[in-house]
Specification:
CATH topology: Rossmann fold
CATH class: Alpha Beta
Order of helices and strands: HEEEEHEEEEHEHEHHHHEHE
Structural class: alpha/beta
CATH superfamily: Alpha/Beta hydrolase fold, catalytic domain
CATH architecture: 3-Layer(aba) Sandwich
Strand content: 15-25%
Radius of gyration: 20 Å
Shape: globular
Number of helices: 9
Number of domains: 1
Largest sheet: 8 strands, mixed
Length: 306
């Protein structure tokens, strides 16, 4: 029998090629230098992309990654999710802790104007914003069957996402890692944190440099809390209708030029909505209180705020 020309070196090259193809099929990312509605090039590093978290249904979570404007090599890496479940993380990018804001005063029914947010958390930290669970924002699963999510499933998918994203961005492995979210994701953030804690000693290398978690205005336990401040404020006429459905974000994210700039995959999300409360999702972890207790008594940092 004749030998394969090139021997071990050819085999090694073939394995590397197969590995790279496999990686490209499970992750994809792009650097975004300009955005429709913003005047000039973006003054910060923005990357968007997808990471597959369920191979069987080709379920992919969409993300926005923004480097710290101070010292990205040393500053913390904060993973951030919005509430719902079913609310897009554009809420975090453009309404809360991100570097952009919609200019409401300049809106005249045309393409929205974007302005810089001077108090963005990206001034001091790298932030990885994730549309989760599947069906939220620009995250999607292929096929005609309904994709069901839940607290347990979403927790494992986000933990898998973080590991795969860091494998693709190894320069951030040593950065202090924090898991954060607000509203319903404030309930999920300590659960994901504990999932990572359990996964760290399992032999996966390198270990994640996990330091703690952040929970903003968090849902914790239905018996103890009910987040009704915003609906109450709207009902009392304290905030406008535009601010209450965050309607401007819908106009922006459904614009074709915006989708093209963000590298949104065609035929995945027909209409973007900020919060889709019809996303099939099972709230199968009734309380996050035990998770808070385990983490805080275990020496992890926690920031819980309203």
């Amino acid at each position: 029998m004749g030998s394969l020309g090139g021997g071990p070196s050819l085999l090694l090259a073939l394995l590397i090629f197969i590995s790279s193809v496999s990686l490209s099929l499970s992750t994809s990312s792009w650097i975004v230098r300009t955005l429709p509605g913003f005047d000039g090039p973006l003054p910060f590093h923005l990357e968007t992309g997808y990471i597959r978290v369920d191979e069987e249904r080709d379920a992919q979570l969409f993300y926005y990654f923004i480097k710290s404007e101070r010292s990205p090599d040393e500053d913390p890496l904060l993973v951030w999710m919005s509430g719902g479940p079913g609310c897009s993380v554009i809420s975090g990018v453009a309404f809360e802790i991100g570097p952009l804001r919609f200019d409401v005063k300049e809106y005249k029914g045309e393409l929205l104007t974007l302005v810089l947010h001077p108090y963005s958390w990206t001034k001091v930290s790298n932030i990885l914003f994730i549309d989760t669970p599947i069906g939220t924002g620009f995250s999607f699963a292929r096929g005609s069957e309904v994709y069901y999510g839940g607290d347990v499933k979403s927790t494992k998918q986000v933990a898998k996402f973080i590991r795969k994203w860091l494998d693709d961005h190894p320069q951030f492995f040593s950065n202090p890692l924090y898991i954060g979210g607000d509203s319903y994701s404030g309930k999920i953030s300590p659960i994901i944190t504990l999932e990572i804690v359990k996964g760290n000693p399992s032999g996966k290398q390198p270990l994640l440099n996990l330091k703690g978690y952040v929970a903003g205005n968090p849902f914790t336990d239905a018996k103890f809390d009910d987040n009704s401040f915003v609906p109450y404020s709207f009902g009392m006429g304290l905030i406008s209708e535009e601010l209450y459905g965050f309607m401007l974000s819908n106009y922006w994210a459904n614009n074709d030029t915006v989708r093209e700039a963000l590298h949104i995959q065609m035929d995945t999300v027909e209409e973007w909505v900020r919060c889709d409360f019809d996303v099939p999702y099972v709230q199968d972890i009734p309380s996050s209180i035990p998770y808070h207790h385990i983490l805080t008594t275990g020496g992890f940092r926690a920031l819980v705020y309203r």
